[in-house]
């Protein structure tokens, strides 16, 4: 009798353990299903949010674009004063629309981004054409450097080059490839010189550097936009740019600047030391390499404050190549500069060259 009871106990205990294990497995499976359902729910909610953001962007963008187009169409037949007022308003609204696009890039699909950029480009072209038709084109003006130039190291001879060495650009407004560049200043058609602009000269203005060869350029301060076009074998350093930097037809050069957005076209064998708060974009480029912005000067922190850029947000290595759409495969058109090859001493060559020129 006692033996039989012991056998029953031995049979009961394993059964209870087995039931407990089965219950534990069922609980784990149930918990896994709950977690999986939560993940699917979160993914669906994220997708809905992204779709809602995209729909809001499209609606707001098209509404603002229509308003600008209406302003431009109202310039036809109007008197000069009214045309000037409407063009100024359209220019300001176009700049705001560009900023809205820059701020929305993180959640837009690449297709929607390209569509919006094409629409904005067309709008800027229409703005330039309307301005050219309605108002006489302003001519370039020559202006000597201000006394503020003494605040930064710069060769005196580079500030007021003669007509056979180049032209300092300083105009009220002009058009660069269909894009309005207002209150523009900069340098053009120069070879083998060191050039400097002070914060007082470029602060909140649009800066244009074009047709420069073998030049070293230092731009202190915070410009509104920076346009680089037809640059060959140059070193160009700029303080924080509050909105966009546009680079076109640049080769064998070194560039450094913080900005909100970078658009680079037709550029080869160029190094870019970058601080950018959105994502850099390249198109029709080869041999472009990137590293974090590393140039420094005494008033850099103040200029960052003026620009409004977020110093804690730098997407320098996040580059979208519009000629390379193969998902999961890196673009062959750009690379990251290895740390051991990155430039850190920016001013020694510039000072040496400035000294030679001044003598």
From TrEMBL:
It comes from the Eukaryota. Residues 159-171 have a biased composition (Low complexity). GO terms for biological process: post-chaperonin tubulin folding pathway; tubulin complex assembly. GO terms for molecular function: tubulin binding. It holds the Pfam family TBCC_N. Residues 20-54 form a coiled coil. Residues 144-175 are annotated as: Disordered. SMART domains: CARP (SM00673). InterPro entries: C-CAP_CF_C-like, CAP/MinC_C, CARP_motif, TBCC, TBCC_N, TBCC_N_sf, Tubulin-bd_cofactor_C_dom. It is found in: Cytoplasm. GO terms for cellular component: cytosol. Keywords: Acetylation, Chaperone, Coiled coil, Cytoplasm, Phosphoprotein. Belongs to the TBCC family. Tubulin-folding protein; involved in the final step of the tubulin folding pathway. This is Tubulin-specific chaperone C. It comes from Sphaeramia orbicularis (orbiculate cardinalfish). The gene is tbcc.
């Amino acid at each position: 009798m006692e033996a039989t009871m012991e056998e029953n106990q031995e049979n009961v205990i394993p059964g209870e353990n087995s039931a407990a294990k089965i219950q534990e497995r069922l609980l784990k499976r149930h918990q896994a299903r709950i977690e999986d359902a939560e993940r699917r729910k979160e993914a669906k909610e994220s997708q809905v949010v992204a779709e809602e953001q995209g729909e809001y962007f499209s609606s707001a963008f098209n509404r603002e674009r229509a308003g600008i187009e209406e302003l431009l169409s109202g310039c036809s037949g109007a008197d000069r004063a009214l045309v000037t007022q409407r063009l100024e308003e359209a220019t300001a609204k176009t700049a705001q629309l560009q900023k809205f696009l820059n701020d929305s890039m993180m959640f837009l699909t690449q297709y929607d981004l390209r569509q919006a950029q094409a629409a904005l480009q067309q709008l800027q072209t229409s703005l330039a054409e309307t301005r050219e038709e309605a108002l006489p084109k302003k001519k370039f003006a020559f202006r000597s450097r201000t006394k503020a130039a003494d605040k930064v190291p710069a060769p005196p001879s580079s500030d007021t080059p003669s007509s056979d060495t180049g032209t300092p650009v300083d105009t009220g407004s002009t058009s660069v490839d269909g894009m309005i560049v207002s209150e523009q200043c900069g340098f053009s058609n120069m070879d083998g010189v060191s050039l400097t602009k002070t914060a007082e000269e470029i602060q909140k203005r649009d800066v244009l550097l074009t047709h420069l060869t073998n030049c070293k350029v230092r731009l202190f301060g915070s410009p509104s936009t920076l346009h680089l076009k037809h640059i060959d074998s140059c070193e160009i350093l700029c303080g924080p740019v509050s909105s966009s930097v546009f680079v076109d037809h640049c080769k064998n050069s070194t560039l450094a600047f913080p900005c909100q957005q970078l658009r680079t076209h037709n550029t080869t064998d160029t190094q870019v030391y970058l601080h950018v708060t959105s994502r850099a974009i390249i198109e029709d480029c080869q041999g472009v390499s990137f590293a974090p912005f590393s140039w420094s000067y005494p008033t850099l922190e103040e200029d960052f404050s003026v620009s409004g850029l977020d110093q804690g947000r730098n997407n320098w290595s996040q580059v979208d190549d519009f000629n390379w759409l193969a998902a999961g495969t890196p673009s062959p058109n750009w690379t990251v500069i290895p740390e051991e090859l990155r430039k850190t001493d920016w001013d020694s060559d510039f000072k040496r060259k400035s000294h030679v020129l001044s003598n």
